[in-house]
Specification:
By secondary structure, the chain is α/β, with parallel strands linked by helices. 47% of the residues lie in helices and 14% in strands. Bound molecules: adenosine-5'-diphosphate and zinc ion.
């Protein structure tokens, strides 16, 4: 299964991609996670990406296309993969086509903007990749990751002003991908639900028609 997850920042792509990855036993590739890891390590990639991310803008296409090209060439992606956060613009989608990668489905997680803003203000993340919400998906112990026991933190780009900017970027540059993939006949839309488990159920039942 080769799958793309589309959706606004904070729509819950990361959470759902982890569930799908488990069920189908395929790796999830999240460009946001890769970029944040590079920032943390202080690499050249990280240094150039940070200013874009903190401003709520997209990192330049060439940069993320290079990352994905390298990932998809690796052995672990042979039996399929989930792309979370890529492509995020039409040129990125065209680059993926040019790599000769035929996607099976593009799943768009639909969540209204007001809901997104409410969700992002409560988001807490862990360095291990786990993600929580103070109300909707709290960890067992406040501020501590269930999976690894490390301290949770708030992402720099989850500040309200940056979230609004990221939503603007999403509508202008990423949302047109829905029409792009609808035209190819592989777009599936799923409404994000209040409960994570309900969204997962809707996602799995949508994917059942793809297998
Ligand atoms: P979210 O989906 O919640 O916005 P991500 O972790 O996917 O968070 O991405 C965080 C930031 O990383 C984005 O706002 C953007 O600046 C950058 N980024 C991630 N993926 C891409 C991409 N495919 N193209 C350009 N920039 C990206
Ligand atoms: Zn953790």
């Amino acid at each position: 299964m080769k799958l793309i997850l589309l959706g606004a920042p904070g729509a819950g792509k990361g959470t759902q991609s982890a569930r799908i990855s488990e069920k189908y036993n395929i790796p999830a590739i999240a460009t946001g996670d890769i970029l944040r890891a590079a920032i943390k390590e202080g690499t050249e990639l990280g240094k150039s990406a940070k200013s874009y991310i903190d401003a709520g803008k997209l990192v330049p296409d060439e940069v993320v296309i290079g990352i994905i090209r390298e990932k998809l060439a690796s052995d672990s992606c042979r039996n399929g993969f989930i792309l979370d956060g890529f492509p995020r613009s039409i040129p990125q989608a065209e680059a993926l086509d040019q790599m000769g990668v035929a996607m099976d489905a593009v799943l768009s997680l639909e969540v209204p903007d007001e809901k997104i803003i409410e969700r992002m203000s409560g988001r807490r993340v862990c360095h291990c990749g786990a993600s929580y919400h103070v109300v909707y998906l709290p960890p067992m112990q406040t501020g501590i990751c269930d999976k690894c026991g490390n301290k949770l933190y708030i992402r720099d780009d989850d500040a309200e002003e940056t979230v609004r900017k990221r939503l603007e970027t999403y509508h202008a540059q990423t949302e047109p991908l829905k029409a792009y993939y609808a035209k190819k006949g592989i777009l599936i839309t799923v409404e994000g639900q209040e409960e994570v488990a309900d969204t997962t159920r809707a996602v799995f039942s949508a994917l059942a028609s793809v297998e």
